[in-house]
Each structure stands twice: as C-alpha cells, then as structure tokens.
Design brief:
Layout lengths: L13 H7 L9 E8 L5 E3 L7 E4 H13 L4 E6 L19 H12 L4 E6 L21 H18 L3 E4 L6 H11 L6 E8 L6 H7 L2 H4 L15 H13 L3 E5 L5 H10 L4 E5 L1 H12 L6 H12 L4 E4 L2 H4 L7
Parallel strand pairs: 1-3, 1-4, 1-10, 4-5, 5-6, 6-7, 7-8, 8-9, 9-10
Antiparallel strand pairs: 2-3
Helix pairs in contact: 3-4, 4-5, 8-9
Length: 328
C-alpha cells in the first residue's frame, strides 16, 4: 500500500504522542469537594463512597494541608447538618454561627490563598430533604425559597466564601443573589451557578454523606431539577443564568452528560465547570477495587470531562490523583 495519510505515524512513539496530545489534565483543573461535620477529631467514613470521609473542622484542616501545600486551588464545602437542627423552613441555613460559616471562617484563616466555594441550597437543612420551602401539597415554592437562598448566600460570603454556588435550580435565584451582593457591597463575590443540574440517579452516595437521604425518603426532585431526557432545556437554563449575572456555569453530573457539557461550552465563554458526582466516584472506585477496571480509568474519566469543555472539575478523586498530576 502507498498511503499519503497514515494517522498512526504520530502514534508510533511516546514523544510524538505527547507532542500531539490535545488535552492535558493538571492540578489546576481540579476542585476538591469535602464534607464537614460537627465535633472535634472526627473522621467519619462514608460507606457508599470508599475513601471519602466527613471531617470535623480541625481534621479537615489537617486533611487539606498537604493538598494546599501541593497547589490545590479551591475546595467546595458541603456541611453535614445534625437532624435536630433541621426544620421545614431550613432556618439553620441562615445561621451565621452555623457549621458552614464556622468552617469557612476557619479555612479562610488557615488557608488564606485557598479558594472557598460554598454550596447554596436548602436540602441539607430541611427536615423533608428537598431543596426549598414546600407548600401544603409538598410542592417546592420558588420565590419564597429564593428569598432564603439570597440570605444564605450573604451569610456564607460574609463568613469567607469567595464563591457562592447555588445548586438548587430555583428560577431567578442567580439574579436575586447578584442584586443582593451588589447592594451589600460584595462586588467580588463570585457566583458559580449550577445552571444544568439533572434529576439524576447518580446522587445517592452524596445524600448518604450529608444525611439528606433519609429525610428525602421516597420524594423526588423532578419538580425543579432537569429531566435527564432533555438537552435544549439545559441550554436554556444556562442562557438564563448568563443573563442574570453568573460568573461561572456548572453541569452536573459530568460523564453521563458530556454532550450537554459540550453544548454549554458552545454557547458561553464563561468558565465552565463540571461535577463528577458521588455516583460516578462510587462506580469507578468499585470497578478499580474489584479489579474490573485499571486505575487509569479514573484519569481517563476526568480527561474526557475536560476534553468535552470543562475548565475545571469537582471530583472526589482530587486527593488521590493530585500529587501525580503536573502543576500546570
């Protein structure tokens, strides 16, 4: 055969494969989601997420120290709220002395250069496990929920969060939070909008970790999270958050929705993040632990997410992979 085009030529040697490589995963691409709980000296394993723990504030600082020393840019904080502090109105969400504000204050003091991303959502705080206030029929009401989210975002920003991340999927909450921040003079507090959050089956281990699974029971979140069947609706949600003043956009989950991630990338030049969620972590971890997958599958999964358009990835694998990735 006399072929002009032989694509395999560039794959023949390691040096040419590296030179032709289009996507590189580095330490700067990863954001570490962490769970914080009450108490002191606590390191509680999450059974459905092997290798992941709930940390008391003091132990979380110890856990993060080597990662920050190695160049970790940002961590996303998720509080584990005790059952007795939950109620239908999510009143603990706006408590300036609550777990999340105290954790943010401690982390900001100990790690002044670490980016702190605070989750803005009510499901960890509600006794019913839903992401907002509900009416007498159990329907999550939008506007009253947004009012609480606005106050929650302000509390978290005052405590030290440089980034507030509304993950609730209420209509209009990005614009309302932006307006409140401007009025409060918090002009540099960034908003990471969970613009595209699907009503996914891949969230189960996370709900175990934060203790919302038992409260949610057999209820679902189909009334506010996106239908997994829909793509055009996802782009519409992203466009609305762009118009309302988001600084960054998020697609969640990541790997089952790479097409959506690529679609959002096409319509926006804003920083775009993806969340490799708890179910993705659990599946890959089980595959590796049982010998069904090589460990390289973890890196491959993250590379695919970045290749699809993500500028950064929230991943529970951050602490395991971090030291093995290039700095930039």
């Amino acid at each position: 055969m006399h072929l002009i085009h032989r694509p395999r030529r560039m794959r023949a040697d390691s040096f040419s494969r590296r030179l032709a490589r289009e996507t590189l995963l580095t330490r700067n691409d990863l954001i570490y989601p962490v769970f914080v709980c009450e108490g002191s000296g606590e390191q509680q394993p999450v059974d459905s997420m092997p290798g992941i723990h709930r940390w008391s504030i003091d132990r979380l600082i110890d856990h993060l120290q080597p990662l920050v020393d190695a160049g970790l840019q940002a961590a996303a904080l998720f509080p584990v709220i005790e059952a007795e502090r939950k109620d239908p109105e999510a009143s603990e969400a706006v408590n300036p002395n609550g777990l999340a504000p105290r954790a943010l204050e401690a982390l900001a003091t100990h790690f002044p250069g670490l980016g702190l991303i605070a989750d803005v959502a009510l499901d960890p705080y509600t006794s019913h496990g839903l992401d907002g206030l509900v009416d007498d029929k159990g329907y999550v009401v939008n506007d009253a929920t947004v009012e609480v989210l606005v106050e929650q975002a302000l509390v978290l920003a005052r405590a030290g969060a440089q980034v507030v991340a509304p993950s609730d999927m209420m209509d209009g909450r990005i614009g309302a939070i932006r307006a409140a921040q401007e009025e409060a003079g918090m002009v540099n507090t960034r908003i990471l909008a969970y613009s595209v959050k699907y009503a996914s089956a891949f969230y189960g281990p996370f709900r175990d970790a934060v203790g919302s699974a038992s409260a949610l029971g057999k209820a679902d979140k189909l009334g506010f999270q996106l239908d997994p069947a829909n793509a055009r609706e996802a782009l519409r949600e992203a466009e609305l958050d762009l118009d309302e003043g988001a600084d960054m956009l998020m697609v969640k989950p990541a790997m089952p929705y790479l097409d959506i991630l690529a679609g959002v990338r096409e319509i926006s030049d804003l920083p775009l993040f993806a969340y490799q969620v708890s179910g993705e972590y659990a599946m890959l971890t089980a595959g590796v632990q049982n010998g069904w997958l090589p460990e390289s599958a973890i890196h491959e999964s993250l590379l695919a997410i970045k290749r699809a358009g993500a500028d950064a990835i929230l991943s529970y694998f951050t602490h395991k992979l971090f030291s093995g990735l290039p700095q930039t």
